[in-house]
Amino acid sequence: MDWKTLAEALFGSDRGLTLDGELLHGEVALDDEPLTVVGTTGHAPIGVRLALAQARVVLDTVARHPGRPILLLIDTQGQQLRRRDELLGINRAMAHLGMSIDLARRRGHRVLGLVYDQALSGGFITSGLIADACDALPQAEIRVMRIPAMSRVTKLPEAMLTELSRTNPVFAPGVENYVAMGGVRRVWTGDLRAALRQALADAPTKDRRALDGAQRGGRRLAAAVMDRVLEAP
Q1: Measured at the alpha carbon of residue 228, what is the angle toward residues 222 and 231, in degrees to the nearest 5?
Q2: Quick one: average pLDDT of 161-173?
Q3: CA-based end-to-end distance of the chain
Q4: What DSSP string runs through 78-116?
Q5: CA 2, CA 4: separation in Å to the nearest integer?
Q6: Which H helix or E strand runs over 8?
Q7: Measured between alpha carbons, how far is 162 from 175 in angstroms, rounded to an integer?
């Protein structure tokens, strides 16, 4: 779904969103309550400029509109693979974006991520996966690493990883697998405005990803390991 169609479904004709290159941002109203929207479109690669621009929207909201909910609209091919961005410190820019979202959560803003098209790699990790909750549309494409890249990193054969991906969501892309792992809370179908309303109303105040993953059977050990670490003397 393109962002204009999505915005129409969520907010109606008076959208209040601005497109600056690949950056989406603006103030909209849901049930007459203001909501900050920030995100990307066009399968945007997240480089230094785009990461800092998104962080600025989040920080401006924290400074000027205490407690206002923030909706992250996610469509990214991951981090910008360019020498210029590496030299400028893309790792620090993306960390700054993630820390800005975390600050908003700590200051009482409900922060919700919505993957409406594509979510890959670091561009997803430093946005939707840091929100209070991340939801997705059913046609969205989600993955952190392709199997060939995973094979190069882990030094495991592609055939082995492909076989593992058939039964283990950790190795497989797709919305359903990320729901099973707890990375995606739920999939929106039907009335998208009603889905957004419900998502904001029951956004968790504590991170439930590991617990959801354990309960859904897609990430069985993370929650137990975290509990053991917290209980350690």
Answers
A1: 140
A2: 84
A3: 49
A4: EE---HHHHHHTHHHHHHHHHHHHHHHHHTT--EEEEEE
A5: 6
A6: helix 3-11
A7: 17
Residue 8 has pLDDT above 80, yes or no: yes
CA-based nearest residue to 182, from 217, 147, 131: 217
52: pLDDT strictly greater than 80: yes
State the average pLDDT over residues 123-145.
90
Name the architecture of domain 3-205. Answer: Alpha-Beta Complex (3.90)
Q: Is 186 helix (H, G, I), strand (E, B) or coil?
A: coil
pTM of the model: 0.90
Q: So where are the chain's domains? A: 3-205
How many C-alpha atoms does 56 have within 13 Å on its Cβ side?
10
Percentages of the chain per state (helix, strand, coil), in multiples of 5? 50, 20, 30
